[in-house]
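Hey Z.,

So I finally got round to the zinc ion thing we talked about over coffee. Here's the setup:
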Amino acid sequence: MTLNEKRAAWRAAGLCTFCGGKPMKERVRCRKCVEYFRAYFQTPEYKTWNRARYQIPEYKALVLAHQQKPEVKARNRAFKQTPKYRAQDRARGKTPKRRAWIRACGHKRRARLTGNGDTPFPTEQFEALCRHFNNRCIACGRLDEPGRERVPDHIISVKLSETVMLPLGFLGDIDNLQPLCHGLDGCNNKKGWRKFTDYRTNPHPDCLRVRAVTP
Ligand SMILES: [Zn+2]
Ligand SMILES: [Zn+2]
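And the result:
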C-alpha cells in the first residue's frame, strides 16, 4: 500500500490523514500533526526543498494544471472571501517586505500607464534645467553626494495625476519636472505625492547664485 493509498483509506475512515491516529470530525488532520507540519514548514530545509521543486518543469506544470481546475479555482475564490483569509491578507500587507512589493507594483503600473517606463523624461532638457540651477537640489540647495543625487521629480506626481485630469503627455513634460535630491535624507523622499510643490518658482538661493569663477 502506498502512502497515498494509506492516506485515502485514513480519510475514508475519518482518521487523521497524516498519522492515521485520531478519529477526526471536521478536520482532516489532528492538531498534533497540524502543529508539527506548521513548524516543519518554517525550517530552512523545507523552504529550500520547496523552492527547488518549483524549478522542476514537470512539477510546476502539475501545480499550474491543478490551479486551473474549475473546482480548485472556485474553492480558492471562496476562500478569499472568508474573514480568516481577509485578516491574514491584511496582516501580510503590513509587513515591510510586502509593503515594498505593493509600492513597487504601483510604480510599475503607473509607469506603464503613463508610458514613463518606455519613454523616459527629456534628458537633455532636464540637464539644461539642472545647469540653470547650478546642479543643485532646488529645495535644499545641496550638491550631489555619495548616497544622494539629483533626480527629476514630477511636480504633479504620477499618482496624483490619476485623480486630476491632465493633458496627455504632461507628466513626463519638462514643465512638470524639477531637480530634487534623492537618497539619504533626500528632499524627493519627503515629498508626498498629494502635494505638488513647485520649487522652481522659489528655489534655494544657492541654486541661483552666480559663481564668480567658473571651474
Ligand atoms: Zn495526526
Ligand atoms: Zn534636496
